[in-house]
Amino acid sequence: MAMMGILTVQADDTTYPYLTFETTDGTKSSVSVSSDQTITISGNTLTIGGQSFTLANLSKMYFSTSDQTTGISEIMKADLEEATEIYDLRGCKISKDQMSRGIYVIKTNKGTFKVNVK
Amino acid sequence: MKKTIYVLLAALLLTISATAQSLNITDADGIIYQFLAANMTESSAAAFGADENSVTINGKTFYFTGISSMTAKSTSDVENNTVSIVYNGSTAIVTIAGNVAPYVTATVNGAHVTIAQSNTDAVDGDEITYVLSGTTTDGEFALSGSYKCTVSLAGLTLTNPSGAAINITNGKRIQISAKNGTVNTLTDGTGGSQKGCIYSKGQIQLQGKGTLNVVGNTKHAIKSGDYITVKNLTLNITSSVGDGISCNEYFQMKSGVVTISGVGDDGIQCDLDGTTSTGETADHEDEDSGNIYIEGGTLNISVTGNATWDSEDSEVKGTKCISADGDMKISGGTLTLTNSGSGGKGIKVDGKLTISDDANLTVTTTGYIAYCSSTSNTTIRTTTSSSTTEKLDDALKTSPKGIKADGAMTISGGTTVVSAKYHEAIETKSTLDITGGYVYAESGDDAINSSSHMTISGGYVMANSSGNDGLDANGNMYIKGGNVFAIAKTTPEVGLDANTEGGYKLYISGGNVVAIGGFESGASITGGTAKSASYTKGAWYGLYNGGTQVFAFKVPSNSSMGSTMAVYTTGTPALSKGVTTSGTSFWNDNGYSSFSGGSSVSLSNYSSGGGGPGGGGPGGH
User: Fold this and answer.
1) Which of A4, A59, A63 shows the shortest C-beta gap to B21?
2) Which of A24, B355, B395, B584 has the most CB within a 10 Å radius?
3) pLDDT per position as a tens digit, B301-330
4) Domain boundaries, chain A
């Protein structure tokens, strides 16, 4: 009950645990900012938490209260096998063996995908 | 149940850890811009430029080539409308809240921080606050702009060896606030061109419950081109070449503790900004009066500077603890003012002086009279005797008075204790009206002097002169009420002196009066009875009015005092000698409200004489 009380007080504050990037085609990709995330710009690419965006495609960047990622592609298990890099939502690089239920970003030879492992 | 608890825990952790996300952008000059998440949501999103080279956030455009780092942080360091400046040795870190980023341009050179503020109205309903902290021996905070703002001192020790510590050319109202519990010390450089260690072109509101120490090594410690107010702050001015505080328009102290010492000129000086005074205005709105208002707090000023020749005004000028171009109103607070400089005064008011309500003043001047022989020989000399300088033009001399007002003086309340060793303790060049309060004046010259009429109708007044008259009016003197104890030097001086030579007169029509040295000859004494008695130096006496105790008083032990003591009450006066005092003390503990015991003193009829000074001796036993 005590915990419920604390939760009620804290709930008045709006939190924004995600930084969401929107591209010119309306696609949104959210990055967790529960921990600090460095944003780098190199050439025409913006990179944060293992995700990379082509500057020419980016239109907006904003904080959001939830993961607003859209356009999660259905990829074949074979594609997953070909993943060259896998990142969790904190931006930490992990191996396939470390994947459990949740959302991940994987890089393959076909492109970068966000996958929802169920 | 266990699963529910885990969910709640997760939600709680998420809430706690993500309450203040921010986007930090550090530019090529090291300036940090911090955009709070709440100000950068989908409806106020950062927009990437079509040129692929820039991003605009909350109206502030950053070109990628000018960004040294960009971080999405889980926390934030500054609140909206805030600019944080942390001094650290030879560097300073400036963090600007994103919502004011379009209006704040910062330049950092070592620990010298210059801010250009461009807003002309409130930002998100509020002004901008600059929070200064840290330590540097070679730093600065300079601010330009055209809208009011706050400078919050949050534990700052800053020395600028080459100029002002805080230099504000923004002409609007600036709050300089010492944060509660912090100690802040500001020091400027020597031999500079700055007008103050803290300088503001516009109004300064000094406040906060912290402590601010200021040293002015070139001119004033604190200088404002407009008014200055003080509230709550503990302000210590420990040294300045010029004034401790110098301002225009008006000065107002509401509360706080202000201690000023080590100044080369005045403690506090307030000048008229324009050429014509507005007088006091409602809530001091647009006021330019040169007035000083002390309404509360504690004000301690110790001045030691000697008189100098002022070539600009072609006059000998002494220092003052407090100096006002206009009027001065003291309605509260505890003031302890000490001036030991030659020609130095405690309070000098060009206009009217009013002391009322809960004012509590102790003013002491011990300096010599200062003078020079001519405008071509301006070497300052000193003397203890007014006769040395009485033939000199006023511009060639200045006297160390306790309180001097060129305008009318009114005392209606409070406690005023003034001691001036070599000149008048209290002097007005106009009229003096005392209607209440406790007044004790002690001087080697007239204790209390007015150039025009003097009226006492209430209160308790003791005027103790060891070298001249006790009370001296150069017009008529009216004693209509109150309680008066005046002591004069031996004849021809008198306790109560009106300007008989000028055709004026002493009128006693009420109150209770004791005068060592007697009353001015030819006095009009009505509505009561006057008697005479001999007295003993240093003895305590009790005064009765028709059998009712009035007050107890102690006769001073001055080396030279008038030969007799005249007493007046509205009934039949009586005196007891050697009384034991009790009740409320006043007159610097030379008076008490109650007494007991003692032995009856023989009184004789008082003769007011027919004119000429020094009358009023015993009428015979």
Assistant:
1) A63
2) B355
3) 999 999 999 999 999 999 999 999 999 999
4) 4-64, 73-117
